[in-house]
């Protein structure tokens, strides 16, 4: 597999490159973030490793560029000396797939990379898009459309919406959703899921008046349902849903979602 390695420490670049090359991978090393981005505009990589601090561009900016411009399922692994919990949480919420700290033994590094590549293989399917009623999910580009109109969702909102539609009318536990979308969910604030659910509901228009409903299940999780016909007493239904959301700890829909971790 073709792997891009970003780190401004020559010894670390050599270590990672030698370890992954010995495991059969084709490594390309970069000491500057701009050089990596420039190459990724012309070439395709199967996995990228990032270090937090490089001389020209911070790794979070490189990660943001990757998530905006590259394949949805391109795995990104942080290999860094930072052990601060906030850095770990930030990287994972920003779209990183895994996070390891230096020093790391070569066998462990190779195992982490192999796990991420294997996970990516499971995402590869014959279908490049999935249709659920008026909603079309472009799996390759990570773009979501409703009746032909593009909906501006983030990567995690896309995955969360897709998980709900793939499990239509099936209760999903909070633990399952967090593990599927956030991976290392033990470090995720408890209200992050509730805020993302509220954002997906608004952006996709998943409301009773549109024939859809994300039902909060008290003490368990959420379930996406389709209403055969919009109920006449939709205001009453929405009131009941708001009460259920308050019991489950979900953020009211009227609250600002500006603090959503993306």
UniProtKB/TrEMBL annotation:
A biological process from GO: regulation of DNA-templated transcription
Keyword Phosphoprotein: yes
4-aspartylphosphate: modified positions: 51
Compositionally biased spans, kind Polar residues: 253-262
A single cellular component GO annotation: cytosol
SMART domains per the UniProt record, alphabetical: REC, Trans_reg_C
Organism superkingdom: Bacteria
Domain spans labelled Response regulatory: 2-117
Region named Disordered: 243-262
Keyword Phosphoprotein: yes
Key words, A-Z: DNA-binding, Phosphoprotein, Two-component regulatory system
GO molecular function, one term: phosphorelay response regulator activity
Protein's name in the database: Response regulator transcription factor
DNA-binding region: 127-226
Originating species: Paraburkholderia guartelaensis
Location of the OmpR/PhoB-type domain: 127-226
